[in-house]
Amino acid sequence: MFAFSRYGIVVRLAGGFIISSAVLLIAGLFISGADWAYKIAIPVLFFASIIAAALAELVRVSRYKGINLIAYAFIGSGVLCLFIDGVLSFYLEHEVHLWWSVIVAICALLVAIVLMFLHFRLKKGRSLEKTFHI
Questions:
Q1: 64: which DSSP letter?
Q2: pLDDT reported for residue 123
Q3: Which residue windows are transmembrane per the record (predicted)?
């Protein structure tokens, strides 16, 4: 419904968040009570929507649309993993302990750094062969 609307990306993401939250709450009521829906699913959905909105804005304002957009997506996925790990650990242990997500975020950041290097290095007119001395 909101995917093909004439409204801006923020309105479409907000509408998608509201509809998805309602579906998750209804599914939580039918499955095993709504405990997991509002403690895990909706916060993760909220963070994913915020990161998607930020990535959409970065795509919109980005001057050069190339490998840098893939790097931004890697950074966004690393941040989303941090949020997911934080929400899950808070739900299970009532404290925020980041374990696996730190490793994922560091790996995603390293890949993003390499992609950004390639993007800005190749933007100056150099080829991959000259950059890596092939």
A1: S
A2: 64
A3: 9-31, 37-58, 70-92, 98-120
